[in-house]
Give the backbone structure.
Amino acid sequence: MTSKTVISRRSFGALAALGLAAGVLPMTIEAAQAATPEEIKARGKLLVGVLTDYPPFGGTDANQKPAGYDDDVAELMAKKLGVTLELVPVTGPNRIPYLLTNKVDLLIATFGITPERMKQVLFSNPYSTLTTYILAPKSLPVSKPEDLAKVTVGVARASTQDITVSQIAPKGTHIMRFDDDATTTQALISGQVQSIGASNTVLAQLNRDYAKLEIEPKFVMKEQANGMSFRKADTALQAWCNTFIAEIVADGSLSKINQKWFGIPLKSLPPMPTF
């Protein structure tokens, strides 16, 4: 049976605030020396870098332990390998340094596959997507960009959603801009706008906290393919993970995780981006 160990987020945050995390963590986290699935099995432990500040992909539970979509994928991976799991909190800026300095075996950390990042690390095939949609109540008759001319659309000012909506909406569409995702979402909840441009993280929040509103994605505006990431030499682990991802897609396990955290079944994952 798979067991799980986590590094205290509070302890990690305190160290980071003191500027000591980089120097102290190598002594408190078992260094990841594994490069192949066989070596991980022999060691008996899988160390995975995860975000704790980006729910529901990677957040924390009531006990301040990592919890989210990425963490559940990591648990399935450890179970498949037959080893214990240690979740290591990482941040957006230190994800790659933690990987390249062997503090983790791999990252499952909502990491978008981009040409710049591919110069430094290997990526698996996509296992999740950060998707931006037009979100609105089920009753609102919107299914394509042309329909936005009939409704008010809220977006976070200067966000990716703002840029995309401005590009695809018909001329004259009433676009209302707010300071951030939180105020944009509140505008939809209060009826100030009829629809919003937002990501699947916002959709998950609305499905969880405001299910009676029956908010649903009307159409996809943009998709970011997220991959697990590895050191350049770890091609065997990359290949194993690609097979693992295909298996959990085929048997429905990944869709169950998506349903749990985002309130909807998993749609088809995008292909590996080519650049």
